[in-house]
Design a protein that fits this description.
By secondary structure, the protein is of the alpha+beta class. The protein has helices spanning 41-45, 55-68, 74-88, 192-209, 215-229; strands spanning 8-21, 24-38, 92-102, 104-109, 112-120, 125-133, 136-150, 175-185, 233-241, 244-247, 261-265, 271-277. The longest helix is centred in the C-terminal third of the chain and has 18 residues, at 192-209. It is elongated and about 75 Å long. It starts with 7 loop residues before the first strand and ends with a strand.
């Protein structure tokens, strides 16, 4: 029976390129699918893999091209990946690359764009919850899945060092989360829309402009700031899963990685939750 069509490669190749110009950082994050067509039919019809490029190598090529092209727009970046495949492997007739961009918007404080604090484009959903009976009601507002990141000014050190630990201390890492936050009203503010916007402003300001010793540290201070800003809030609860950006080891390919190429991943993720109240 004839083999009508075939292609193969690697899906969900996630790569973050980060350019640093002093305190001004620019993140470029893509999730790629790279598929090859060419002289590979024998792998299907005869169990002969001699022409095949390992899909792990496909991932590695994407990372190496990323390290060598930190500032290219996504359109020129995928062209550079394709050129690497076509120049390296004569058995490849064509390469098909699709990329989904995670778009990070530079956040501004006081009208001034910040160097390393970003929010996700098309971000989050508003949340409201009411429990009412004949004696009264409890009203909560909040956000679900509001995603933000800073590319420096975050660390994680001095945690338990035992036989199960593999994670090294770091004083400079990317910190990102998709936050669920819920605040409980003790009384009505003058304007719910304005109050909710001020809560978010305070949360992002604390996260983005102060050094973080960990998500726990930032979360507590964010809650303190929201309660100080809005006296009508009784307490605020957070669930902030880590979105990890893991530096990719490019040494096997003769490339350095001075904090510029990362593997974005949120599975598995650290899950940090807390409620801060007025006491």
């Amino acid at each position: 029976m004839p083999l009508i069509a075939s292609k193969y490669g690697k899906g969900r190749v996630r790569v973050m390129r980060l350019t640093r110009d002093g305190d001004h950082h620019t993140p470029r994050e893509l999730t790629l699918t790279v598929l090859m067509k060419g002289g590979f039919d024998a792998a299907w019809t005869e169990g002969d893999n001699r022409a095949c490029v390992a899909t792990d190598s496909v991932k590695n090529i994407c990372n190496v091209v990323a390290a060598r092209n930190l500032s290219l727009d996504k359109e020129l970046f995928v062209r550079a990946i394709a050129a690497t495949f076509l120049d390296t492997y004569p058995q490849i007739a064509s390469v098909e690359i699709e990329g989904r961009e995670t778009r990070w918007l530079r956040h501004a404080f006081g009208g001034e764009p910040h160097g390393h604090t970003f929010t996700l484009d098309g971000n989050g959903t508003g949340y409201v919850r009411l429990v009412a009976d004949r004696d009264g009601a409890t009203l909560q507002s909040g956000l679900r899945g509001f995603t933000f990141m800073k590319t420096t000014q975050s660390g994680w050190v001095d945690f338990v060092d035992d036989q199960y630990r593999t994670l090294p201390d770091t004083t400079d890492r990317i910190a990102a989360t998709a936050m669920d936050a819920t605040w409980t009203w003790s009384r009505a503010p003058a304007d719910y829309t304005d109050a909710n916007a001020r809560v978010l402003d305070r949360l992002i300001a604390v996260f983005g402009t102060t050094y973080s010793h960990g998500v726990q540290d930032s979360m507590y201070r964010m809650g303190e700031a929201a309660l100080a800003e809005i006296p009508e809030i009784a307490e605020i609860s957070f669930a902030m899963p880590n979105k990890h950006y893991i530096p990719i080891n490019l040494a096997p390919f003769g490339e350095d990685n001075p904090g510029t190429v990362f593997l974005p991943t949120d599975e598995p993720h650290g899950q940090i939750e807390a409620t801060i109240g007025r006491g």
